[in-house]
Amino acid sequence: MNYFNRxxxxxxxxxxxxSAVVGIIAVTIGVFLMQMFVPRFTSAFxxxxxxxxxxxxxxxxxxxxxxHGGFFHIFFNLFVLYLFxxxxxxxxxxxxxxxxxxxxxxxxxxxxxxxxxxxxxxASGAIYGLLLAYGLTFPNRTLLLWFVIPLKAKYAVILFGxxxxxxxxSTGGDGIAHxxxxxxxxxxxxxxxxxxxxxxxxxxxxSSILDELGGGAISPANIDRILDKVLREGPESLTxxxxxxxxxxxxxxxxNSNRL
Length: 260
Fold this sequence. Notes:
two-stranded antiparallel sheet; 11 helices; mainly alpha; single chain; disordered N terminus; elongated; Rhomboid-like fold; 3% strand
């Protein structure tokens, strides 16, 4: 894989080095060992939609993410987390990555609690959120689907989304929480959309600032002209418009000095 093409939208001065991903993996493995040696541990902290709705056991929306139903369940979830999560954490930073991971996972749990009656365990909701984020961030990155079929990430995300959507509509029970997977993608996509909107607004504001600095009334050249007039002729020589420009410039530079 080519790891040198970075999407500037996700860059931050303080980037993660994979510590959040490693931490999640370590905690998840520790919890899995607890499940093996303390059988009641799973039933106590799994996501039981009925208990969440009737007894308000909201903590289950978080704890179920760390529980798993067997070796292959935990192996594939953590494998995907390590494979895709490290690069997203490196670009976003650890704090943003953790927020996205748990936002997707908790959101997936909330949808499951509202629309299902079957207990659920596993990080798959959060993992599907990560898959969506990866596909949106690196849409043309080629992935080996099921380790065999080469497919661009954007098409893989669409394929997984369609599979989970139609599977969640099925009444047959295959033991897979398709609704939870779909919920993770929905909440992950919602957060990505919010971040994208905020980024667009920031870029518009930055463009406006640069326009002001480049040639507007409070551009450095115009301010220098007014200040030179003050030095030559005194403050009383300024017109009302020039005084207003100086006041506006003072507020503008004070407010935006740390943003440029």
